[in-house]
Amino acid sequence: MTAAVVGTAASVGTSHANKQAAAQQQDAYTQQQLADQNAQIAALQAQQAAAPAPAPVAAAPAAPAVDPVTAQLTNLASLHSAGILSDEEFAAAKAKALGL
What we know:
- By secondary structure, the chain is mainly alpha-helical.
- It folds into two domains: 1-52; 68-98.
- The chain is built from three helices and no strands.
- The chain has helices at residues 2-50, 68-81, 87-98.
- Helix 2 (68-81) runs antiparallel to helix 3 (87-98).
- The longest helix has 49 residues, at 2-50.
- The protein is rod-shaped, with a radius of gyration of 43 Å.
- The model has no long low-confidence stretch (mean pLDDT 80).
């Protein structure tokens, strides 16, 4: 009976030791992955710091100033073309815009 107890105890002890070894290996693997990730992050941050700043975007050229009378005449022509203003209404509005 003593041999059976000793054999069982040895088996349980070996199983426990194997589980601890596996857990330690997993911890070491996880730590290595974290170290690798941190190294990659540091390398990317160094690249970003060393990269030249992007060139500023040039502002679009300003649209030429439109004369208010020209803008009004263009608007009246659009309304006339769309059929909103009759020929007579267009002529009267155009004369008013030109100060005639």
